[in-house]
Amino acid sequence: MKPVNFDYAAPESVADAIRLLVEARGEAKIIAGGQSLLPLLNMRMARPSLLVDLARIPGLDEVRLSDGWLEIGAMTRHAVVEAHPLVRRHAPLLAAAASFVAHHQVRNRGTIGGSTAHADPAAEEPLALLALDSELIAEGPDGAAKWPIGAFFRGPMTTALADAQVLVKLRVPCRGPSEGWAFREISRRRGDLALAAVAVWLRREDGICRDLRVALGGVADRPVRAKAAEAALRGCAWEPQIVDKTPALLEADIAPGSDVHATADYRRAVARELLVHALNEAWERVGELSPHC
User: Could you read off the pLDDT of 100-154 as tens digits, one per residue?
Assistant: First the structure.
């Protein structure tokens, strides 16, 4: 199939993009790489009257450090997130998640902001952003808006962004040498969306898990935190019997569905197995990171 007819605009500033979105009165779609949007257009699951392309706006693809945060422009390509030295040094969990996004061609075109705003429940980078306690910055007709990552996702392909708001920046707290991380996923084929995925960040001091965040993808209608599992391990010494019991606690926080790719029971079983491996991997990685920025 082919998309319905639409107009196209390529503004050269965020302000112009917002103006176009306001004038479209909810009938416009932002294109920020197009790797998720274009298939929806071709299948006529999206029928905008206007596409607003952010590719010509300068500054939306910058990666920099600022006051203890790693700031990533929303138009930064997945391939850049995967390879950028600042991301690999200060948020390697995010770089690892980006390496699982689709295929090389898609990573060279798609953007972290586009994936985050698209809000597929199985997408890799939003999952890592959730585990890293990130925040998102948007601009709109009423000025800037900011959300903690946990408040941004509202459901499958649904976020807190209003029709005339433009996601411009993602901010990740810089990480340090007492912290570890891991990203694991299972998909039918390399490059497919995950049937289940787990992102783990933890802080270890004196052999104790002082803090822990576990994010799960593909097992609910949005990326979710495994809060019961986090609470069980936080403040504990790392003992195999404790870690092995933790996956049973996922039931409180996940609600996988069945589809043509996998049953709910399969996704649940995979998430449990991935969690054990990711927890132990993150624990062993403590000490690999650079000092905080």
Answer: 998 889 899 999 999 999 999 999 999 999 999 999 999 999 999 999 999 999 9
Indicate whether 246 pLDDT > 60. yes
* Three-class HEC string of the chain: CCCCCCEEECCCCHHHHHHHHHHHCCCEEEECCCCCHHHHHHCCCCCCCEEEECCCCCCCCCEEEECCEEEEECCCEHHHHHHCHHHHHHCHHHHHHHHCCCCHHHHCCCEHHHHHHHCCCCCHHHHHHHHCCCEEEEEECCEEEEEEHHHHEEECCEECCCCCCEEEEEEEECCCCCEEEEEEEECCCCCCCCCEEEEEEEEEECCEEEEEEEEEECCCCCCEECHHHHHHHCCCECCHHHHHHHHHHHHHCCCCCCCCCCCHHHHHHHHHHHHHHHHHHHHHHCCCCCCCC
Rounded average pLDDT over 31-59:
90
Is residue 167 left, alpha or beta, with left meaning phi > 0 and alpha meaning psi from -120 to 50? beta
C-alpha–C-alpha distance, residues 188 and 203, integer Å: 32
What the chain holds in terms of domains, given with CATH numbers, is: 7-53 (3.30.43.10), 63-173 (3.30.465.10), 179-285 (3.30.390.50)
How confident is the model at residue 3, as a pLDDT? Answer: 84
Lowest mean pLDDT among 42-46, 97-101, 271-275: 42-46
